[in-house]
């Protein structure tokens, strides 16, 4: 039986697993499989393997392939697996080929490395990447890859570019992008994702623009909290949304802002606090301070209490 198109399968909370390492620094595939398995069984809507939270930048091509293959093995078709790809066009195509060989269902195209291209260059990059793979592609807008509405419309005309993940947070720009694609391509099922760190913090604002899919770093270590928030957001239970924002997500975002790279390393610390054997981050990222990990522990306890859960 042929699987449904990726765009039709992307629903619910999007799980961005961390990559597990042994004490020696090598990738620990058994621990990684366990981490992915826990996420899928907890109710993830999709697995985004080896992306930002998964330290794509720190993985060799061989490690990348093995991790994507492990995620595909664990997901076993229950949910789609989307793999990261990035750097320049040539390397992005290489990682795309590795992801396809590993059985991934799609790609998340991270911004090009180092350079700041113009709109024509960005369009050429993503169009070439889409043409060079049989996988569906989601473009991740952030940092040096900020797209105009016209460029997004141009990319949306490419059949296997199926969506845009926004990590900028410019709601005026997002509204103009959504409106432009809807106007120029009214029959196009183009998907939009809130990709900001701690995306729940801006969930209400993005919902107003029509963007309801988002990546949840919290799901990595506290799926009970993440799922409770997602249910409240999607059912219009704004009282619960605001209670979790005030009691958990806003303090978490403030803690995340206390250190460089905490969008990854603090998440990994949270996974360890919940018993995950995922190890520490690779350089150039560094671990959170002991004081910040203790603050995370206390905040986690508070969040779990808010949703009636426990350790």
Automatic annotation (TrEMBL):
EC number of this enzyme: 4.2.1.41
Superkingdom of origin: Bacteria
InterPro entries in UniProt: Aldolase_TIM, DapA-like, Dehydro-deoxyglucarate_dehyd
Keywords, ordered alphabetically: Lyase
Pathway: Carbohydrate acid metabolism; D-glucarate degradation; 2,5-dioxopentanoate from D-glucarate: step 2/2
Gene3D superfamilies recorded: Aldolase class I
Keyword Lyase: yes
Family: Belongs to the DapA family.
UniProt name for this protein: Probable 5-dehydro-4-deoxyglucarate dehydratase
Native source species: Streptantibioticus rubrisoli
Classification lineage: Bacteria, Bacillati, Actinomycetota, Actinomycetes, Kitasatosporales
